[in-house]
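[job 4471] stage=fold_predict status=RUNNING
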Amino acid sequence: ANRLIDEGASTVDGSKEYKLNTENTSGIVYKVQVGAYSQQVPLERAMIFVQFADQGIEHFQNANGLTIYSIGGMDSYQAAQSLKETIQAAGIVDAFITKYSNGKRL
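[job 4471] inference complete, writing structure tokens
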């Protein structure tokens, strides 16, 4: 995700920057969230995650202490929708699309 951040835009107010970025699709990335866990990922889910390793699996801990897992980093919603459907068919039926601008979830 860091490769998409425009480091030259650090002086722009965050909320205005995000608003501009939602109108201008450059810097927008779509990912498929596949889980949020307070403990270890269940083995059955981990085995499905591995099937999509070539798409890139990312994780981070949110403010509530949950570890959020997502797959992919597409620049089009249509590509993310296709990946989401493939992931759902593999067994993660509650997968959904998330949208990011310069590394921040929108």
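[job 4471] summary: The beta strands are 28-37, 57-61, 67-74, 96-101, 104-105.
[job 4471] exit 0
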